[in-house]
Amino acid sequence: MLVAHLDPLAASIFSLMAIASLLLAFVMLGSRWLNNYLYAFAAESWVIAILSATVGFYGGYPELYLIAILTALFRGLFLPYLLWRIVKRLNVTREIHEILQPSSALVVGAFCVIFSLTVGYRVGQSLGLSATVAVLALTVMLSMKLIGFLMLTVRHEALSQILGLLVLENGVFLGAQILVPGMPVLIEIVILFDLLIVVACFGVLIQYLLAHAGTTSSLELKRLVG
Amino acid sequence: MVGLVLLVMLAAPAVAALGCLLFRRRGAAETLNLVASVIVFCAAVVLAVTSAQGPYLFWDGYIVVDMPGAWVTLCTAIVYFLASVYSVGYMRLLEDAADKLWSFYALFAGFALTVLLSTVMNNAGLYWIAIELTTLVSTFLVGFERAAESVEAAWKYIIIVSAGISLALLGTVLFYWSGSFVLGPVYDMTWSALQHSASKMNAALVSLAFLLVLIGYGTKVGLAPMHTWLPDAHSESPAPVSAMLSGALLNGAMLGIVRYLAVADSAGVGPFARIVLVTLGVFSLLVGALFIVRQDGIKRLMAYSSVEHMGVIALGVGFGGIFGIAGALYHMLNHSLNKSLMFFGAGNVMRSFGTKEIIGIRDVWGCYPVQGSLWLAGAAAITGAPPFGLFLSELIILRGGIEGHYTWAVAAMLVLLIVIFVGFLNHFREMYLLPSASAGPRPALSNWCIAPMWFALAPLLLFGLWWPSGMWEHFSAIAHALAGGSP
Is the pLDDT of residue B383 over 50? Predict the structure, then answer.
């Protein structure tokens, strides 16, 4: 178990990375400009890539270097580039229909983090790991999940929804690197899969645009009810 | 021998999909897909029978043929076969899609392949990947008709299911973590490894992980309140795809819940996990009942009936014991047969009457005596009326609930099943007995569209009247294996 006996420097670096990516998730939550989402997502992916490399270094898992490279390349460069092209093409630069103001979304996000902290602390306590970085990893993992879901619910631009999905998985990546550095094969495949999902989403999106030639807001998706 | 059969079963749809891409012609694609589905069906029967001789492992233990998995494989193969026969007739009716039917068959075979793959995965992580693959492939099938509604359904499908399934990924990671306290930091996350080490896992962590997995795969199963994608996707995709989604895909995801529940049981959090599963099951029945009673769309009616039946299966699994498990597995088979029949019938009347609305479908009996009778028999069966298989399996699940002391759930299930019976058949009364506003000759349907309805109804009637004793032994062996009796 890597997290149980970790030297203090490594623990601090891990914590720093985890907190940094949580903060970037809040940046996404607090902005209404699609470009900001993109930059924050790319930065978050880079932070996670660096985290993978650090865990690989301290835990002695050479496979994690590969994961770091894959994460940086695909999630840090390629996916943001694809999404950026779509932003250009769709000519949508910001969220227009807001259910929740960014400021209120931030407050709700803060409550999500508190809830995750409670869950993480309880689980950590029952495992006897309450003083380690495991609690933080669990907290960040769960709160990024919740923030991702929050983004999916309060944002309606198609692009924000795709990014919300990707944030959901970023949270899992981050936690998995720290908690279970031994299961990298799954994560490698999941990284590739996200790519496929995004491509599939684009396929659907483009069909949608062909069918409607109008908006890309999911608020307009209301033909099927009941 | 088993390995060869398995290989043939997985290779057949793969070859068919590749062949469709290669030939790019409708005739070739139809034939390839049909042949593949027959091969898959035969192989699945062999696998289901031979799986009783103990689990077979392949590829360093990444692939397993065990009894619960092989049973779901069989259900999938049956639906794949029926839907392949049906799609030959049905897809020809879509005029504007005539030149890209080959891509439909390529996707269709690919979809069958991914569902089959998910049933034989021995590694929890790979199972997750297989389920994710089913989503990716079937999204394009849901949106195949390219109408605005289909694309809307496809978008909702991919977003909701991917979001849900990412919770299952988190649950999988947490299960791996809790296993790593027992098995060391690096291990193969097979179902049996998890189940055997579960007794030493931390109960709080396993509870959290199970909840995440249940919500994640529950989204894919269509348990309420995560079912919102299901009516849209089922109603807007072409009828053979609806049958595959409902009869094959949902079972494939349910298998994951069954397997994780076995792990949770061994970890000692079974009672908690079961209460949650039973509650979701009852809630699915409730949502199904409410939306069935006042439903306007014919395929949405069938879709909500799927939500209801997944709720029934969840109840059976949650009740546990020999009766609960046997009832749930039997219900899977019956539901697969019956829901295929219902979607085929719905597809037929949709094409003949040119509407998806129940209000536009009148005097079915007068227009189509044979096909109408088949569909009506199916409607009686799906609401749980005797003498069909679903009556028997629902009865066994109820008995499982009584044995497991879930009296409240049994009572709720009974009331809701009666409500659904009345509500569902009321729609059929309207469609069959009210006179048609616009008289005139209706288009005749090809035999490709009628024959699979016979194929589905015959075994349904047979299993309602006669329960083979071998099947009962098979089910009790599965229940025993899931309870941790043998690996």
Answer: yes
Q: Are B3 and B65 in contact (CB under 8 A)?
A: no
Which pLDDT belongs to residue A207?
A: 64
Is 50 exceeded by the pLDDT of residue B487?
A: no
Domain count, chain B: 1
**For B291, which of A122, A196, A226 is closest by C-beta distance?**
A226
**Nearby residues of B61 by Cβ (< 8 Å), 6 or more positions away:** B122, B123, B188, B190
- Domain assignment of residue B487, yes or no: no
Strands B63-65 and B56-58: antiparallel
- Shortest alpha-carbon distance between residue A104 and chain B (Å): 23
Which residue in B146, B204, B232 is closest to A224 by CB distance?
B232
Say if CB B187 and CB B193 are below 8 A apart: yes
Choosing among B169, B188, B295, B298, which should be mutated to test the A contact, i.e. which has the most A CBs within 10 A?
B169
The residue length of chain B stands at: 487
B128 interfacial to chain A (CB closer than 8 Å): yes
Q: Which residues of A touch B177 (CB under 8 A)?
A: 179-180
pLDDT at A213 over 60: no
Pick the range with the lowest mean pLDDT from A120-134, B240-254, B472-486: B472-486
Query: B13 lies in which domain range?
Result: 2-482
**CB-based contact A93:A35 (threshold 8 Å):** yes
Burial class (CB in 10 A: 0-12, 13-18, 19+), B361: buried
- Contact assessment for residue B251 and residue B220, using Cβ atoms and an 8 Å cutoff: no
pLDDT digits (tens, 9 = 90+) for B183-207: 888 888 899 999 999 999 999 999 9
Q: Give me the pLDDT at residue A120, please.
A: 92
The whole-angstrom separation of Cα B286 and Cα B308 is 8
Q: Is residue B130 part of a domain?
A: yes
CA separation for the pair A153, B43 (Å, rounded): 44
Question: How far is residue B313 from each of residues B233, B283, B290, B317, B325, measured CA to CA in Å?
Answer: 21, 13, 19, 6, 9
Are residues B307 and B225 in contact, defined by beta-carbon separation less than 8 angstroms? Answer: no
Which tokens go with B315? Answer: 């109840």
Q: Is residue B131 part of a domain?
A: yes
ipTM: 0.91
Measured CA distances, B24 to A35, B28, B410 (Å): 41, 8, 52
CA gap A168, B164 in Å, rounded: 10
Distance CA A151, CA A157 (A): 10
Burial class from Cβ neighbours inside 10 Å (0-12, 13-18, 19+) for residue B35 reads: middle
Structural domain contains residue B433: yes
- For chain A, the domains span 8-220
More confident residue, A130 or B263: B263
Residue A197 has what pLDDT?
A: 74
Determine contact, residues B144/B241, Cβ cutoff 8 Å: yes
Note the pTM of the prediction, 2 decimals. Answer: 0.93
In the structure, how many helices (H) and strands (E) does chain B have?
Answer: 20, 2
